[in-house]
């Protein structure tokens, strides 16, 4: 059973380093978040390395790890020590030739509460994720933990209201979005404000439409590791929103930070009672949502 109130945290970091250093860094920041009272803590997407998807390079598959190896062992021990839930996004090697962009949900006793594999995989300039990641096959899940019922989606999933809806319908109180999103430096001046605004707006919309808390954990810093390219400037701006889309905490664009906010289940229930969007859904009329497009011939 969830408590009526519990504290969640997202950690915003520069992760442009090698796996060993990123692991030590993230463990230290998780410990700091727990010391500040956080009970459910999320790291950014693909925490253990720089954002390698800027290029299509088979050598990058060496960054992947099998299930229940380095990341799980380290964060399982830490979760048990601190008595917290930790969301650990990592590059999963399932078998030779099959890799996923995944996240462990590790419970307070160090056990695996759940595993999520990113469902929507982008293929955009310098976000060449389809080269690396097989689409998730575990579906959208709500994970019961000792602290609360949480849903974990990953980055590109954030643009899809269906993903948020299905996760919320399974009882999620919070939707966590570990993220690696930023600007192409050459586009920032012209498009940057609108791109960032769209990112904020769509996730605040998920909070409102589903009456849930939404927590996005992004990375920061310019990652320019490919010669002759401008790299990606990760825009930070991690945030936690309440069930009416209200911003409870928000980070800067360029500083490493911990954001903490309280999940209040009585408030969530009150919001849903006054805005009964789930009650009024016309599920009898939604059959076409499973089609790629709805062709209407006249």
Automatic annotation (TrEMBL):
GO terms for molecular function: hydrolase activity. It holds the Pfam family CN_hydrolase. InterPro entries: Aliph_Amidase/BUP (IPR050345), C-N_Hydrolase (IPR003010). Transmembrane segments: none annotated. Residues 6-265 form the CN hydrolase domain. Keywords: Hydrolase. The keyword Hydrolase applies. The keyword Repeat does not apply. This is Carbon-nitrogen hydrolase. It comes from Flavobacterium taihuense. The lineage of its organism: Bacteria, Pseudomonadati, Bacteroidota, Flavobacteriia, Flavobacteriales.
């Amino acid at each position: 059973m969830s408590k009526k109130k519990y504290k969640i945290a997202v950690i915003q970091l520069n992760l442009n380093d090698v796996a060993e250093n990123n692991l030590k860094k993230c463990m230290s920041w998780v410990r700091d978040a727990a010391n500040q009272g956080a009970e459910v803590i999320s790291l950014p997407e693909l925490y253990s390395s720089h954002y390698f998807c800027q290029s299509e390079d088979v050598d990058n598959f060496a960054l992947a790890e099998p299930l229940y190896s380095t990341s799980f062992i380290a964060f399982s021990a830490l979760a048990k020590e601190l008595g917290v839930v930790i969301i650990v996004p990592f590059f999963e090697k399932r078998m030779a030739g099959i890799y996923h962009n995944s996240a462990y949900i590790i419970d307070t006793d160090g056990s695996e509460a759940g595993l999520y594999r990113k469902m929507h995989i982008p293929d955009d300039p310098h976000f060449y994720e389809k080269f690396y990641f097989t689409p998730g096959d575990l579906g959208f899940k709500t994970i019961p933990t000792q602290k609360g019922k949480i849903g974990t989606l990953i980055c590109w999933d954030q643009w899809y209201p269906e993903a948020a809806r299905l996760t919320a319908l399974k009882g999620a109180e919070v939707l966590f979005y570990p993220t690696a999103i930023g600007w192409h430096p050459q586009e920032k001046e012209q498009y940057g404000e609108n791109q960032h605004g769209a990112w904020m707006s769509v996730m605040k919309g998920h909070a409102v439409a589903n009456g849930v808390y939404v927590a996005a954990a992004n990375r920061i810093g310019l990652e320019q590791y490919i010669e002759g390219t401008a790299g990606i400037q990760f825009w930070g701006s991690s945030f936690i929103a309440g069930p009416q889309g209200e911003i409870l905490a928000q980070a800067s664009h360029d500083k490493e930070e911990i954001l903490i906010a309280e999940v209040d289940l009585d408030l969530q229930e009150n919001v849903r009672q006054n805005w009964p969007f789930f009650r009024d859904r016309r599920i009898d009329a939604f059959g076409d949502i499973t089609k790629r497009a709805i062709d209407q011939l006249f």
